[in-house]
Specification:
8 strands, 4-stranded antiparallel β-sheet, 14% helix, 4-stranded mixed β-sheet, mainly beta, 2 helices, 149 residues, 2 domains, Immunoglobulin-like
Length: 149
């Protein structure tokens, strides 16, 4: 038998064929295995589990200079952990002082202390570790002090 490292990704059919070969050549494999040490790892990625944010749109209001937090939506599917960011094509950016994060229940959270008033629609992307992306359209309004016109 050969010595070396085997690192191969395979389909379920290939994996089952490999198991069948091990069964058919059990005695040879047992003799070889008594002389070597190896590690076998199997990663199963879910099929059809698409990344999603629910709801897909909404609004959040903050007061300028006051700390706040708003849950924007629940993220599901895909392959966690998730990473939120503002989409490069977003018509607006997050107001200064606010930041995106994920909580321990996979909820998308906007929090912080806005330092400027105004409002805008922000396109928020959530990426998973498999490279999938889901998008959320959100109106963010940090309200400043009331002024007379």
């Amino acid at each position: 038998m050969e010595q070396g490292i085997v690192n191969k990704k395979c389909t379920i059919c290939e994996f089952l064929s490999l198991i069948k070969w091990f069964i058919e050549h059990r005695k040879e494999v047992e003799q070889f295995m008594s002389q070597v040490q190896f590690t076998l790892s199997l990663v199963v990625n879910p099929v059809g589990s698409s990344l999603a944010i629910t709801p897909t749109s909404g609004s959040a209001s903050f007061t300028q200079g006051v700390a706040g937090s708003s849950t924007l939506g629940a993220v599901s599917g895909g392959v966690p952990p998730y990473t939120p960011s503002v989409d490069a094509s977003s018509p607006s950016q997050l107001p200064p002082g606010l930041a995106l994060s994920m909580d321990s229940n996979n909820n998308l959270v906007l929090s912080g202390t806005p330092t400027a008033a105004g409002s805008g629609t922000v396109l928020i992307d959530v990426n998973d570790t498999a490279g999938n992306t889901a998008q959320l359209k959100h109106l963010v309004t940090p309200v400043g002090s009331v002024s007379s016109r």
